[in-house]
Amino acid sequence: MKKSLILLGLFLTTSLYSQTILGKWKTIDDATGKEKSIVEIYEQNGKIYGRIVEVLDPAAKNKKCDQCEGADKNKPIEGLIIIKGLTKDDDEFTGGTITDPKTGKVYKCTISLDGNDKLKVRGYVGFSLLGRTQYWIKVKKS
To answer: pTM for the complete prediction?
Structure first.
């Protein structure tokens, strides 16, 4: 009995640990369905951020965010922090922003898990209904 409870506890701990938004996620282009980049989601000072750690299209690897404003203007897209300042609110993370490096536009952002291996990323203006949702795929550790 004791051994079963220990095994159950380990299983639940492992299951909860694997269900996290933290880690690396592959982004998919809405229009083409092609893989675009790898974004690493991380926590810093209690807030959630996301940085493009790899641009997958060799032709776009050295592009800069020339449409971005402020401190991000003309920064390389690879290395750019595109998700900023999200905080946990029940099963989702909200209250921050996401930048589209192609257009430089900044949107309000909400992200949540859709199963263990899919991340629902919603960028919007004003109300969440006025926006766009992408699904990012968890990068498996090799």
So the answer is: 0.84
